[in-house]
Structures are given as structure tokens and as C-alpha cells.
Amino acid sequence: MQGDTRADILRRLSFIEGHLAGVRRMVEADKYCVDVLKQTYAVRRAIEKMEAIMLAGHLQTCVVDGIRQGRDAAVLAELGELYEMAGR
Amino acid sequence: MQGDTRADILRRLSFIEGHLAGVRRMVEADKYCVDVLKQTYAVRRAIEKMEAIMLAGHLQTCVVDGIRQGRDAAVLAELGELYEMAGR
Amino acid sequence: MQGDTRADILRRLSFIEGHLAGVRRMVEADKYCVDVLKQTYAVRRAIEKMEAIMLAGHLQTCVVDGIRQGRDAAVLAELGELYEMAGR
Amino acid sequence: MQGDTRADILRRLSFIEGHLAGVRRMVEADKYCVDVLKQTYAVRRAIEKMEAIMLAGHLQTCVVDGIRQGRDAAVLAELGELYEMAGR
């Protein structure tokens, strides 16, 4: 990962960890489960956003370099695998 | 949330928090972003599984009680809202 | 399904079928695959919207009636199954 | 799209159109909405599978060629847009 992407990802991870700690406090305090679910959905969206940024970075660096170096098959197989995993 | 559901959710939250801490260590150690992404996908799936358990508990308790007490409209509106949010 | 929900669903199905026929014509005319993909994403979103309407109708009728009649377990098991399948 | 990918996509489109026609007949015959939903979920999965094949073809041809020709920015911007749209 490039330096500024990594800094951004680490900032986002801190935010997500803080958000999850808040979810834990809600569960411990026995808050209404609908309100807890709304927070876990928000956490999930924050993770998805972070993934999109990591993936964009991956495309711009490793994928472009790999294709320039003729390693198309390896780079695209890996990308296909990621796509499959992302959708579940 | 009922006692055993809450205990299960708290266990799952601990696991997810530990997993995310592992993701942070990977990013700090500048691991290959494809490997990091595979771990964040796994975290996301673990959150989805936890949500499914919370939702099942919600259906079995609050939704059933609400409908028995004639609060169908309120209970179903809330459920519809959750459904929309879950899909994004 | 209640009458007006069914009429709405049939209208949406016609629209989706027409949209898919358009996708077929694009593929036959060898249009740029990125443009084809954008259309299939739109088709998928239209199906998801139609599903949300069917599900809301199901909750308001079969689920409420089932719970009033004491068939909670059956109704909720089915709902849980649908949720799992919706997410894949 | 390359010839064999296009033939595969057209076969899948025929299957999906047939499946949707079956959904329409179920709705017209007033089948149980849970059973209809299970079929629309299957249609949606078939569309997602078809999209994955189109995207793989796009990566192997247009993306690789674009990067080789130095059009990285355009090719990756388009790919990022597709990713965003796929997730909704």
C-alpha cells in the first residue's frame, strides 16, 4: 500500500474500532436491538468504504504494474478471486 | 435482547474486535493489500452473521409481542426500515 | 398476494422483462461490455425493489396472520430462511 | 466481448428470461409469495453470475489492453465506477 493510502486506511480502522466499541457498550447496556443493528449496518458500510479504497489502490499499483510486466493471468485471477469473496 | 442471545453477541463482538486488531497489524506491517482485503471480507461476514442472530432474536421477541399486542404497523415499519438499511 | 400488490408486481415484472430484452439486444449488437454491465446492475436493482414490495406484503398479511394464529415458529423459520437466501 | 464469452452470455440471458417468465406465471397463478421470492432470488443470483463472467472478460481484454496502451487512468476510473454500481 502506498503511504497516503495506508495512513487513510489506518485512520478508518481507528474509526471502525471505536464504532464497534460503541456497539459493544450498547449491547452491554441492553439497548434496543433495532438500534444496535442500525449501528452494525453503519460499521459494515464503513468497512466496505475502506475496502473500496484499498482495492482502488491495489488496481492503481499492483494490477497496473503486473499487467505491464506481463503477469496478466496471475493478477486477473487474484482480482477475480477478490470479486467472488467480496460478494460473499 | 434475551440473556443467551446477548452472551452470544458479546462473544462474537470480541472475536470481531480481535480480527480487526489483526487487520490493523497487517496494515501497519505493510502486508500485501489483497491479503488484507481477504481478512476484511471475513470480518464483514462475521458481522453479517452476528446481525442475522440479532434479527432472529428481534423477530422472536419484539415482533411477535408487538403483533400480539396489535402494534403491527409500528413493528412492520421498523422491520421494513431495517431491511432497507441492511441492503445499504 | 393482495390484489393491488399483485398488479404492482406484474407491472414491475413487465418492466424488468423489457429491460432484459434490451440487454439482450445490446449483447447481440456487441455493445461495450461496461455499458451492458451498467444495465444488468439496473435490472438487478429493479428486481430487488420488487422483492422488497413482495416481502412487505408478506409481512403485512401472512406473517401477521400466522403470529395471531399462534404459528410463530413456522412463520419466523420461513422468514429467517428468506433473509438468508436474500443475502445469497 | 469475445465470441465465446458472448455466446455464453446469450445462453445465460435466455435462461434468465425463461426463469423470469416462470416467475410471472407464478404471480399470475397467485402462488405463495415466499415461493415467488425464492425464485426471484435465484434469478438475481443468475444475473450476478452472468455479470461476473462479463467482468472477467472485460478485465482480460479491455483492461489489459488499456493498461498496455497507457490508458490506466481511464480504464481504472471506469472499473471503480462499475464496482460502486455493482454494490448498489
What does this structure look like?
4 copies of one chain form a homotetramer. Chain A is mostly helical. Chain A is built from 3 helices and no strands. Chain A has helices at residues 3-28, 33-68, 72-86. In chain A, helix 1 (3-28) runs antiparallel to helix 2 (33-68) and helix 2 packs antiparallel against helix 3. The first copy, chain A, starts with a helix and ends with a helix. The mean pLDDT of chain A is 92. Chain A binds chain B through residues 1, 6, 9-10, 13, 16-17, 20-21, 23-24, 27-28, 30, 33-34, 36-38, 40-41, 43-45, 47-48, 50-51, 54-55, 57-58, 62, 78, 82, 85-86, 88, and chain B through 1, 6, 9-10, 13, 16-17, 20-21, 23-24, 27-28, 30, 33-34, 36-38, 40-41, 43-45, 47-48, 50-51, 54-55, 57-58, 62, 78, 82, 85-86, 88.
Instruction: Estimate what percentage of residues of chain A fall within beta strands.
Output: under 5%
Low-confidence segments of chain A, given as residue ranges, are none
Based on CA inertia axes, which overall geometry of chain A fits?
Answer: elongated
- How many distinct beta strands of chain A? 0
**Order of SSEs of chain A, N→C?**
HHH
Oligomer state equals homotetramer
Residue-averaged pLDDT of chain A: 92
> Major β-sheet of chain A, in short?
none
The N- to C-terminal Cα distance of chain A equals 24 Å
Number of helices of chain A: 3
| Share in helix of chain A | over 70%
Largest interface, chains and sizes = A-B, 38 and 38 residues
Q: By helix and strand content of chain A, what is the structural category?
A: mainly alpha
Radius of gyration of chain A: 17 Å
